[in-house]
Specification:
This protein is mainly α. 65% of the residues lie in helices and 6% in strands.
Length: 616
């Protein structure tokens, strides 16, 4: 419900209370199709965001995904576009507040409406600087109230509308409809805000997906019903006012009550959208600053309440500047422009990370029919940008050039992270990244462990650095011992022949085969070595099988342990940990499917077992 309330609440604002007036001017009855197209084209972005959010549930949302997957330069573009998109959407909502104030004081000019919106922005800046914010429960209550008002409007409006006039529409050309689709695309932008709160959601694989799809389906149906009703009620009214819902409410039974209800709902929707938008947008500079992409000053927070004061001030002042500089139509188009650029990059990000072979990319939700939605979404977003008008392309071009210029002048030498794109190129070229270069693998593994609430113990630390022997052809146990002893000798500076003999003697004394309740046996050869404070593990996989004894028993997995006498206690703990790992039903399939040494280690690290407490 919390995810649903965030997503639905962020969508129900200007998209239905203001934008229909602009859409009517642009495409007339074709606006109904424009809203449908925009909603349909949200699906690729929604699929991509949910997939990435369930794999990488980190604060920062789109910026974080793009920066880690496509690289730092695209990350700078995405971060700034994300900030601009949220800021402009919030500015648009503030203009909506000014438009509805016009109901109370008719005859306000466009400039006066902008001044009211700028004044409201100053109030929200002050609120955010004090740390005040609506709780999730209040958000849910507010969304429920909005939905009730809109549903009853639909029920009354349907009885009063001219449905035959709505259905009589025929399109002469798709150009104005596509242009309108690009402009109203901002209506759905709030849906993807759930990616930014993924880190705070319990069981994101379930909650994010269910909440987001419920919000999309319900709000999309409401949008289409409401737009059809508005067309059926106001088709003979000439130019619509900036408050078309209230204009239509005047034609329903109990007009005064309906006008009051729609006005109250609209103002509340605008207030929550604008306030939440300012809050979210001000956190983008904070995340980018912590990643060394923009000046450190924007990472500063207040000591008492941890409020990003510089981010709030910069974002708020920018919003005021945009309110005073753009007319309401231009504001909607520019906000949609940056949203479309973001969605283009987010769809590309899914394709890149799926193709990169990154071992620890494990989304709970995967895009249906991949990569078809992404391949539809990317060119579709480009077409919408083009169809919105000639000004949008130069604005997009100038923005990208300035963002890349910032990267080359101030960021390039400060950040050295290897992205999923580098992993993909390395994979195509047949080269493997060195462990110290595989920053993304380590970061994703850490995210997976945090998501599973795993607190690392000493055994996990050993697995992270354990040598891996990944064999392709079938071999005997002694042939495997020969290769393992060579690895041990190199890693711990020991005599390989002595190690091999110890392994053979240990196996003759007592077989190290174990049967953890599955059809396939595993082996845990373990020996004691000279010295003190020494313990190590060599991980072995042979997809074709290791013939372990004269009876022909075959193993595919071996954990080879070595330790000095003073490590006997930990030796027993390690044996217990391995036994628990081998009993995890998901271990064997994950182990055999792993494509690299890193993925083999991750399979062990993410297996279910009881871990030692930190003090132990």
């Amino acid at each position: 419900m919390h995810v649903f309330s965030i997503a639905a609440g962020a969508m129900i604002s200007s998209g239905i209370f203001v934008l229909p007036a602009l859409a009517w001017q642009s495409s007339g009855k074709g606006m109904l199709l424009a809203y449908f197209i925009s909603g349909f084209l949200m699906l690729p972005a929604l699929f991509s965001k949910l997939e990435l959010a369930t794999a990488i549930p980190k604060a920062g949302g789109t910026y974080f995904f793009v920066e880690r997957i496509l690289g730092t330069a695209p990350g700078v573009v995405a971060g700034l576009a994300n900030w601009l998109s949220i800021s402009l959407k919030s500015a648009f909502a503030l203009v909506g507040i000014g438009a509805f104030v016009n109901l109370l004081s008719p005859g306000l000019t466009q400039w006066e409406i902008r001044l009211i919106a700028a004044g409201a922005c100053l109030i929200f800046i002050a609120i955010n600087l004090t740390g005040s914010r609506a709780s999730g429960g209040f958000q849910s209550l507010l969304v429920a109230f909005l939905l009730i008002i809109l549903v009853q409007f639909c029920l009354l409006g349907y009885r009063s509308m001219d449905i035959r006039w709505v259905l009589s529409w025929k399109a002469d050309t798709l150009a104005p409809i596509l242009a309108t689709s690009g402009m109203v695309f901002i209506s759905y932008g709030g849906l993807t805000k759930i990616a930014s709160v993924a880190e705070e959601v319990k069981e994101p694989g379930k909650s994010l997906v269910r909440g987001a799809f419920a919000a999309f389906i319900i709000v999309q149906l409401l949008y289409l019903l409401l737009i059809a009703i508005l067309i059926g009620l106001l088709h003979d009214k000439g130019n619509w006012t900036l408050t078309p819902m209230s204009q239509a409410a005047a034609l329903l039974p109990f007009p005064k009550l309906e006008i009051a209800l729609t006005a109250i709902a609209a103002i509340l929707a605008f207030i929550t959208t604008a306030n939440a938008g300012l809050m979210a947008a001000s956190r983008v500079p904070l995340s980018m600053s912590r990643d060394n992409l923009i000046p450190d000053a924007l990472a500063r927070t207040s000591r008492k309440k941890n409020i990003p004061v510089p981010g709030i001030l910069v974002t708020g002042l920018f919003m005021i500047g945009m309110i005073l500089s753009f007319d309401i139509s231009g504001l909607a188009k520019v906000a949609s422009l940056f949203m479309l650029l973001l969605f283009l990059m987010i769809n590309l990000s899914v394709i890149v990370i799926r193709s990169s072979g990154v071992a620890n990319y494990k989304p709970s939700f995967k895009t249906p029919l991949y990569p078809l939605p992404q391949l539809i979404g990317i060119p579709a977003y480009i077409i919408l940008i083009i169809e919105m008008g000639g000004k949008m392309i130069p604005i997009a071009g100038i923005f990208i050039v300035l963002a890349l210029l910032w990267y080359f002048l101030f960021v390039r030498n400060r950040v050295k992270r290897k992205s999923a794109l580098v992993h993909m190129i390395s994979r195509i070229a047949g080269t493997e990244l060195l462990p110290e270069d595989a920053h993304l693998e380590k970061e994703l593994l850490q995210i997976l462990m945090e998501k599973s609430e795993i607190i690392e113990d000493r055994f996990d630390s050993l697995i992270r650095s354990a040598p891996v022997l990944d064999m392709v052809e079938s071999c005997t146990r002694d042939e495997m011992f020969y290769q393992v002893s060579t690895i041990i000798a190199e890693r711990w500076q020991l005599d390989p022949e002595k190690i091999r003999k110890k392994l053979q003697i240990r196996e003759k004394e007592t077989s190290t085969l174990i049967y953890p309740g599955v059809a396939v046996p595993h082996a845990i050869p373990h020996i004691v070595i000279e010295g003190t404070s020494t313990f190590g593990i060599v991980l072995v996989r042979n997809k074709s099988g290791i013939i372990w004894n004269d009876a022909g028993e075959t193993v595919f997995t071996a954990f080879c342990l070595l330790g000095s006498k003073d490590e006997r206690n930990f030796h027993l703990r390690a044996l217990m940990a391995i036994a628990q790992i081998l009993q995890d039903p998901a271990f064997h399939s994950g182990w055999m499917a792993a494509g690299s040494a890193g993925e083999l280690r991750s399979t062990i690290l993410l297996s279910k077992r009881k871990r030692d407490r930190p003090e132990e």
